[in-house]
């Protein structure tokens, strides 16, 4: 059963060209569009990123991806090379401060398509709260797992 | 066979499937509900001034970057985009232009989040750009831009959809006329 779910997820990842086609929103920076615990469905088509699209991107050297909206777009003549500036709907400033936070990125002015791991296509509210609760309170995870094990042990 | 546990399990499984079918139907319905949005943006003035972007941002540290300051007029009626699956509209005015080094450029001048149908009629005059209008090459000479109104419908559940108005006439950026304070 678990193997089937895993394979379906991977096949879906291949179809959408996204390593992880589902992400859970972790911050309030896109409120009121996306709240903490909402699930986003991603895909990463080859066509150029449009203005106003919401992208998930990774800044080199930072582990946690950022989900923000594209507010500037400059396409170069080279195919697939774009310069993008992003901003969270709920933030007052654009994201350059985030791009340049690490010393290795102190000259980074733009996000480029190679930094983008997915583009938001769909939305499902609240359900990601489970994973947030489990990461915030690891005891809950163990309690749930042992509960499942206990039920399986008692009733099978 | 018909233990309490079995019954509870069946009810739970059925209600989960039912909820997901309903969510799917709502998500799909949003794609076929017709809307008749209308909108337009016009620029009543453009001024170009030179200035410093921000002393902390290394690449733009020089003082002679050209910024365009625009005054916009926005008229729109997007109330028909509000239906049972519309959580909010993200509305944004976009300037589009082309330069020899970058064939397609788009910059958001102004944006707004609309969460209620009653607020979806826009009639704004004398609106200044909210974000800096500066090109990658930091110069505006010999560039023509048009403006248009874009919107993104964020659903309660389902697909993100986008739309935009027709582009305005083309505006030519003037020569720099002063320094930004």
UniProtKB/TrEMBL annotation, chain A:
It comes from Lunasporangiospora selenospora. Component of the signal peptidase complex (SPC) composed of a catalytic subunit SEC11 and three accessory subunits SPC1, SPC2 and SPC3. The complex induces a local thinning of the ER membrane which is used to measure the length of the signal peptide (SP) h-region of protein substrates. This ensures the selectivity of the complex towards h-regions shorter than 18-20 amino acids. SPC associates with the translocon complex. It is found in: Endoplasmic reticulum membrane. It comes from the Eukaryota. GO terms for biological process: signal peptide processing. This is Signal peptidase complex catalytic subunit SEC11. GO terms for cellular component: signal peptidase complex. GO terms for molecular function: serine-type endopeptidase activity; signal peptidase activity. The chain crosses the membrane at residues 139-155. It holds the Pfam family Peptidase_S24.
From TrEMBL, chain B:
GO terms for cellular component: signal peptidase complex. Pfam families: SPC22. It is found in: Endoplasmic reticulum membrane. Keywords: Endoplasmic reticulum, Membrane, Signal-anchor, Transmembrane, Transmembrane helix. It is a single-pass type II membrane protein. InterPro entries: SPC3. Belongs to the SPCS3 family. This is Signal peptidase subunit 3. It comes from Lunasporangiospora selenospora.
């Amino acid at each position: 059963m678990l193997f089937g779910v895993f394979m379906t997820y991977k096949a879906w990842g291949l179809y959408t060209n996204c390593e992880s086609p589902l992400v859970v929103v972790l911050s309030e920076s896109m409120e009121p569009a996306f709240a903490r615990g909402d699930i986003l469905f991603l895909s990463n088509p080859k066509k150029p990123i449009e203005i106003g699209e919401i992208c998930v991107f990774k800044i080199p050297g930072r582990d946690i991806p950022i989900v923000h909206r594209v507010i500037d777009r400059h396409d170069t003549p080279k195919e697939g090379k774009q310069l993008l500036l992003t901003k969270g709907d709920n933030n007052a400033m654009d994201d350059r401060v985030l791009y340049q936070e690490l010393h290795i990125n102190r000259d980074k002015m733009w996000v480029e398509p190679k930094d983008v791991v997915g583009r938001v296509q769909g939305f499902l509210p609240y359900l990601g709260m489970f994973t947030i609760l489990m990461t915030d309170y690891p005891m809950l995870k163990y309690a749930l797992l042992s509960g499942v094990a206990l039920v399986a042990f008692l009733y099978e | 066979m018909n233990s309490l546990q079995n019954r509870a399990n069946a009810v739970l499984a059925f209600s989960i499937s039912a909820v997901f079918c309903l969510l799917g139907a709502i998500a799909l319905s949003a794609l076929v509900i017709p809307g008749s949005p209308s909108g337009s943006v016009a620029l009543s003035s453009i001024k170009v001034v030179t200035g410093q972007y921000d002393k902390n941002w290394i690449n733009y540290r020089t003082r002679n970057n050209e910024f365009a300051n625009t005054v916009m007029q926005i008229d729109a009626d997007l109330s028909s985009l509000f239906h049972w699956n519309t959580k909010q509209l993200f509305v944004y005015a976009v300037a589009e232009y082309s330069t020899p080094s970058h064939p397609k450029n788009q910059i958001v001048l102004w944006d707004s989040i609309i969460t209620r149908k009653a607020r979806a009629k826009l009639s704004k005059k004398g609106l200044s750009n909210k974000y800096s209008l500066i090109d990658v090459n930091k110069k505006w000479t010999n560039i023509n831009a048009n403006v248009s109104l874009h919107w993104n419908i964020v659903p309660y559940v389902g697909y993100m959809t986008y739309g935009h108005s027709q582009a305005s006439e083309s505006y030519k950026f003037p020569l720099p006329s002063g320094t930004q304070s």
